Amino acid sequence: MSGVRQTWRIEISGTVQGVGFRPFVHRTANALGLDGWVRNVDGHVVAAAAGPRDAPERFLARCRDEAPPLAVVGTVTVGRLDTTDPHGIAPGSGFVVLESTAGAATGPVRQVPADAAPCADCLREVLTPGDRRYRYPFINCTACGPRATVITGLPYDRACTTMGAFTLCTACAQEYADPADRRFHAEPLACPRCGPRISWWAPEAAYGGEEAMSAAADAVRGGAWWLSKGWAVISWCATPPTRPPWPPYGAVSVAPTSLLP
Ligand SMILES: [Zn+2]
Ligand SMILES: [Zn+2]
């Protein structure tokens, strides 16, 4: 009876957007040889999976139990796929990520994920000379990077983030479209060629990239202090014992958190 084909429609709520959930579902479905699709709908994820008798069930179990680290799987609803669905699943059609839809806005509460610190893979890249994101401060992937800071609406797509203003370069676009790449559908995807860049404006000149970093470090070594605006926070930078001459924004943390080269 293993040849009996089953088709399931699976709806998953919780923190499942902006956490690499669609790429994870895509990888899992392909590993099980399923046909179907996954998409963001409003604030949750909907998938349809078709395959031999027990494959959809194993797929469901893995979606629940092996979700990406940043995901929090909430309610899982399983049902039949509407036979009038325009994305009906033909045997051998493969598994794809479909375009997001707005949904009915009456479903489960939408949960926006928090920003996440760089993952081990991104840290390795950012510290590797020759890597195309070497020392690039806006590095991210499906396992890390900005989320709540850049999201302007759901479903979670690049167009619904502040990164929508940055058009992907060819190399980034290839990563974004490659199911085998960990940046597959990483919505805030960026690199030095196509993403945001750091800048330093001095009275005599403006600098970018490494020159900006060096100029900022030189200024601090010379006793100056400065503010930097990043993904989520404004940081104050100085060398001890210099302290900020205010707090203009209420409580301000002055604990040293990082060192410039
Ligand atoms: Zn990462
Ligand atoms: Zn790029």
Automatic annotation (TrEMBL):
It catalyses: an acyl phosphate + H2O = a carboxylate + phosphate + H(+). Its EC number is 3.6.1.7. PANTHER family: CARBAMOYLTRANSFERASE, CARBAMOYLTRANSFERASE HYPF. It is an enzyme of class 3 (hydrolase). Keywords: Hydrolase. The active site is at residues 22, 40. It comes from Streptomyces rubradiris (Streptomyces achromogenes subsp. rubradiris). Gene3D superfamilies: 3.90.870.50. SUPFAM superfamilies: Acylphosphatase/BLUF domain-like. Residues 7-99 form the Acylphosphatase-like domain. This is acylphosphatase. InterPro entries: Acylphosphatase-like_dom (IPR001792), Acylphosphatase-like_dom_sf (IPR036046), Acylphosphatase_CS (IPR017968), Carbamoyltrans_HypF-like (IPR051060), Znf_HypF (IPR011125).
